[in-house]
Design a protein that fits this description.
Blueprint (H helix, E strand, L loop, with lengths): L5 E2 L36 H5 L27 E3 L3 E4 L2 H12 L4 H15 L9 E8 L4 E7 L39 H12 L9 H9 L1 E2 L2 H14 L3 H7 L12 E2 L2 H13 L2 H4 L1 H12 L12 H5 L4 E3 L2 E5 L2 E5 L6 H12 L21 H21 L19 H8 L30 E8 L5 E9 L7 E2 L2 E2 L36 E6 L5 E9 L6 H13 L5 H6 L3 E2 L5 E4 L12 H8 L3 E3 L8 E6 L2 E6 L6 E4 L1
Parallel strand pairs: 1-2, 18-19
Antiparallel strand pairs: 2-21, 3-11, 3-22, 4-5, 4-12, 5-8, 6-7, 9-10, 10-15, 11-12, 13-14, 15-16, 16-20, 17-18, 20-21
Helix pairs in contact: 2-3, 3-4, 3-5, 5-8, 12-13, 12-14, 12-15, 13-17
Length: 641
Amino acid sequence: MGPKRLTVAACVIVLIPITACGQSSDDRADPCAAASGSASTSTAATSTAATSAGGGGDIGTNPEIATGYRSGIEPVDTRDYAVSTANPVSTQAACEILRDGGTAADALIAAQTVLGLVEPQSSGIGGGGFLLYYDAASGDVQAYDGREVAPAAATGDYLRYIDDINRTVPTPDARSSGRSIGVPGVVRMLEQAHIDHGKQDWSTLFQPAVDLADGGFQISPRMAQSIAESAPKLALDPASKNYFLGPDGAPKPQGTVLTNPAMSTTLSTIATGGADAFYTGDIAQAIVDGVADTTAGRTPGRLTLDDLAGYEAKMRTSICTKYRESDICGMPGPSSGGIAVASTLGILSNFDLAQYAPTGMDANGGTPTAEGVHLISEAERLAYADRDFYVADSDFVPLPGGSPDTLLNPAYLSERAALIDPQRSMGKAEHGDFGPVRFASSTDPEHGTSHISIVDSYGNAASMTTTVESAFGSFHMVDGFLLNNQLTDFSAEPAAPDGTPLANRVEPGKRPRSSMAPTLVFDRNEDGTRGDLSLVTGSPGGSVIIQFVVKTLVGVLDWDMNPQQAVSMVDFGAANSPSTNYGGEHPNVSGPGDPVVQQLQQWGHQVSTADQSSGLSALQRTDDGWTGGADPRREGIVLGN
């Protein structure tokens, strides 16, 4: 028998030492009232459920600072709707929208705007995102692309040189300069999703965040650690310095109450005027001025009002492939996440993974077997090799064959699977050969993100990954929110040493490649058609997102884990390098001497036990409704009714 489940019958945050879950609506006059008080103070739930194992991570090797592990989290059962975000205050805000009859699209707006306040290091309205949305009435899976774009004045050397005459690097570095800032996309994307699928009035969905910005909220443990890690760079921007640091320049600590009247004004303006109020007018001018700012000698960017006014959120065709008895739907380019996850699973479909399930199953997902880690990591190496070489913004760089189908052809993936030695790591994989190519490969780092998973009472679902790129983005703060540094997801070098253009180089109007992998899973009917929605999942984590999502899907679909066990399980996997991740923050990992680590090393893996910083969430359909899990490595919770 698996671990006991916690039944949630209301959007209630309860202060308990495991994940905050909820209690029956019969127990409270207001079923969505936070047990600790108002939403603006309920960040205390994060404090009591704070990290209990592991420690800080190395920001140089991790997408975001690692903040430990909350052991023993149990799955949460709901009947009609559920939501999981990376912060309890955001989860509660979204849950209340669902409680009041809102759709998943409505709840996304409340969740994102609140996240921009309570975890500004990861996401916010100054960034972008990708959204997969399931419309229960039509059965359609729609892919929304809210990725940032490079300004029209950007050149191939935009991130390398100040200009053609002054061929020195931007100061103080590319990320902290105005050159890293792309046109934010998430506001326009959320507006389009609301037009298509919203039920509640747009203006009301901003009220939770407005109230929080005015009334104040506590700095959570994770936010406090992130501020401390980034304090020197935050100090370079006057607005960021004033907001995140004290008068003496010290980082504001956990528990400090922040208010953000500028953000309140910004959100109120968008609530009244729609996305146009963000992309034109005073807010747009503030963004342009922020990008052009040269305070402390910062190199300005070349973003213009026309760049902002011309931004469009794009509708893409989702990538849906078969795995076992399920259909897995993911995000297409410019995200590489959907293709890489599908490619990995397509390779793994040639193996019987069920026999390599973790042992000693517990609430934390048991202990992975070396055989399972090995096969999955090798499949990921092969998938990353193709991802690195072929995938970029498909509006600029066509995929082999003109669509994802060539890279995801089952016969091709079977050939890739045959390259895996069951007892020897390949170290570094070669990409597939599809004839002459116009572009060269690049493996650029990606950084901080957040993820939101929602199912509503109408049967709709949303999986949205959202980001400002690195922790605190570019550190530029305007009108109460941080601007992204998303353009550093491009290759800084425009061409390979032999002069071949890099696929992911900077070009005007181009969207940088991402690894974000919002994912929806469906049952398959006996006749092979798509059946009911069965799982909603996704994670932050930069380029490691692909590994986090794959291990969760395998955990649920191959190893029969509940969603909490799957997300809690050891984070493991590999990009296309000899290094294999095996998250040392997990209580079931005993460091470099761990038996799984030693076996992997015998098979040629160079194992890293550095703490991982996933932020997975997963909502799985059950006979009685939904059961959900939130990643113990961050502050997230599951709520619903």
